[in-house]
Amino acid sequence: ESAVITASVEGIGSINIEVTVLEPQIVCPVNSVDISKGNYKYVYTTLKNIPSSDLIVWESSDLSKAEFVTSGTSNRTVRVVAKDYGTATITGYLGSKESGISVSFQVNVPYPIINVNNTMQTVKVGKHKFVTASTQNMASEDHVEWMVDNPAILSIAASGSKNSKVTFTGLGEGDAVITGTVPGGNSVSIFVHVTK
Fold it and tell me: At residue 5, does pLDDT exceed 90?
């Protein structure tokens, strides 16, 4: 918005001065950040047309997913910590919510993904084999949960880092399915045929 101020002196003339009021803003260079569970990232904001002494007050839509610590002049630096899988929105307000001046960004904590190279296996009764799964976005404290749909045909045992390795032993002739599941529900199935 702008306004014109006119100053005049009788007999000498007048002068017009245009005054423009600049819109105050909190500027954030990102709309979203991806952070693996248990890790953190810094987000840096700037103040535009606002005194540098004014504070930004921050909040998280879900502190169980993403929490934060602020630092720097006016709390412009936000250290975001990914607490659990899912999403949260971090919002900063100039002074308070009532100011009407805010900025937001989304924090994405991606769910783990699991894969195996060979989903079709054959094993003889009394023998064993193993398959090692690869995982992405898995926090160090999480692990793969393995299950078998037909324990009379096949027994399983998990081992390795994050239980990524499953060893299976043929108990009787037939077919069984081993399923590996990671937090958030992503899974992979291994189809096993047991022969004599």
Answer: no
CA separation for the pair 165, 38 (Å, rounded)? 23
Q: How many whole angstroms separate alpha carbon 30 and alpha carbon 90?
A: 12
Residue type for position 163: N
- C-beta of residue 33 within 8 angstroms of C-beta of residue 43: yes
Host H or E run for residue 9: strand 2-9
Quote the CA–CA distance of 45 and 125 in Å, as a whole number: 63
**Phi/psi at 54 (nearest 5 deg)?**
-70, 135
Pairing of strands 134-136, 145-148: unpaired
pTM over 0.85: no
Examine the pLDDT at 105 and tell me if it is beyond 90.
yes
pLDDT in tens, 66-75: 999 998 878 8
d(C-alpha 85, C-alpha 77), whole Å:
23
